[in-house]
Amino acid sequence: MFKIFENEILACAFVSWLIAQVLKVLINWRIMHRFDWKRIFGMGGMPSSHTAFFIAVVMMVGFREGLNSTSFALAFAVATVVIYDAMGVRYQTGQQSKVINQILREMLLEGKKLTEERMQELVGHTPLEVLFGAIIGVFVPIIYVSL
Predict the structure, then answer these.
(1) Domain ranges of the chain
(2) According to the model, what pLDDT value does residue 121 have?
């Protein structure tokens, strides 16, 4: 069981995730002018820690086992699905949550009525957030392998 802690691929992926999560806290602090330590484990935001984690796995598998290995193909396929999900389904869910919260505020506090056109608006990541997660996921394994 403890052999899992010796797995360099997972260790590098975890470091990438941790860097992305710490950056989320710092970026949130810069924008909101307060530390929100809940962001260290929170989803969404800049950069995408999901992307950083999976790109690091893909890079490390590629370094260790080669780009033509079955393991690389599997890691690449899973990373693609996770990143697609982070930008698509999870992002839209987050957008819908914002709209629903706004509608509820307006209905309960301002007495506005709910209309069908209000429901036409849209937790996850924008393409830019995914790009920065991917950059972390690329560079951490390169540094890790060169050490």
Answers:
(1) 2-72+127-146
(2) 42
Q: Is the pTM higher than 0.85?
A: no
Report pLDDT digits (tens) over 73-121: 999 999 999 888 877 776 677 777 777 778 778 777 877 776 655 544 4
b/e map of 56-87 (b: 16 or more CB within 10 Å)?
bbbbbbbbeeeeeeeebeebbeebeebbeebb
